[in-house]
Amino acid sequence: MAVIRTHHLTDEYIQVDKPIKLETKPRTRRLFLPSFFQDESGERHLRGVFVHQKKGPTGWEDEAGVSLRELRAGDAAKFELGHEAMKNLLDGIGILLKTARQASIEKRSERFSVALQDRSVEVEDETLKPIIKEILSKGFEGRFWSELASLRPGEADRFAAQQMLARRNDSIREFELAMQKRDWDEPRWGKFFEENRWIFGLGLRYQFLRHLQGQANYGGMNITGQGAQIGDFLHCTEGEARFVVLVEIKLPDSEIFQAKSKMQPYRRGVPGFAVEFANALAQVQVNSRTWEVEGSRTEANRDRLEGDRIYTVHPRSLLIYGDLKQLDAIEKRNCFEIFRGQLKDTEIVTYDELLKRAQFIVGEMAQAT
User: Fold this and answer.
1) Residues 235, 240, 242: CA angle, nearest 5 degrees
2) 3-36 pLDDT per residue, tens
3) Structural domains of the chain ordered from first start
4) pTM to 2 decimals?
């Protein structure tokens, strides 16, 4: 890589601020000081001076001596370049000739990044994006990551983790906005959770859940082909043996308790659950039963799942429903928490709880990266 800055001393003469280092020893070094000369036709030519320097108290200083052009005919003179010095000279001249062809060299003072084909290029803010686009356009992304991993072990993993963290932060912002606007229907929420399966990664029983199928057919079809029970998501736990978990989603504003105008407490301190809530709970439980006795026993489903060590044994279910903001009285809070705590096979998680879980997962990722 070469970074070159040029300076116009006159309209015809362009000085290069960095010499080509031919050979460097502890106390001496040899340089080629390049410059450009522009003739009357506008063509630029490379010229230069060879210099021998020694290290003095204040840095490198030119050696005192006679210039080769001052030698008279017959005076002995010899200037030898070793193979390393010659290679440096030729490489440097090649780069300078590339620079001479750049139109922007006409500016009074300009900085260039020039490299031979087998050398790296300088990366700066303004050049980073074009370089990356060039890598991608030539199909080198796989090689780029493998080279990065070999040069900086763990850097590729760290970058991938940062990208995942950024995507999940975007998803959380989308989640929050949808919670505020309340303008998504069940299919839209289903699509969001399908695209962000990681949100379901940890159940309330601290078992990791893995997505199996969206809009799963649990069975229940009669001889006319009607009556099939379709669920939102079919998940399974993770482990050496995996067990099916059914997931059903409703809406954040789905009512948990009856509206005030309709509320008729069954007993003092016991508010009445909304019909919608009771029906949703019944739906997920009936779906679980249908899957257990019918859907899981069909040959195709059984072969597919058990081939991956996934089993159906009294399947649990997860109902995503409502928002805890609805629990605006102590009677509601007590009733809801006691009720869902006593459910044996169905877990009820509200949307705000799911959002808090997602925020926690991303917060832990941010600390890890």
Assistant:
1) 20
2) 555 555 555 667 777 788 888 888 888 888 888 7
3) 2-121 (no CATH), 168-368 (3.40.91)
4) 0.55
